């Protein structure tokens, strides 16, 4: 139970730090992304927090800056999805 409480507290601190670094519009966009792809939103938050710790962020991250950051991340992590359809032969197939 103490582990769970510590985990919840750490997540709350993390969310508070992110809220201080990003603008309200960017925060709203991040929350929408988190609904669809939580791992991507978490990764973007990690990048923002890391940049803030290193002193690379001097003002709040705007929505435009967040969009450009997302585009950069997408170009670096783009995956090719390949779909292969295997059809089983039917015994009584007329085609």
From TrEMBL:
It comes from the Eukaryota. InterPro entries: PDCD5-like (IPR002836), PDCD5-like_sf (IPR036883). GO terms for molecular function: DNA binding. GO terms for cellular component: cytosol; nucleus. It holds the Pfam family dsDNA_bind. Belongs to the PDCD5 family. This is Uncharacterized protein. It comes from Chenopodium quinoa (Quinoa). The lineage of its organism: Eukaryota, Viridiplantae, Streptophyta, Embryophyta, Tracheophyta.
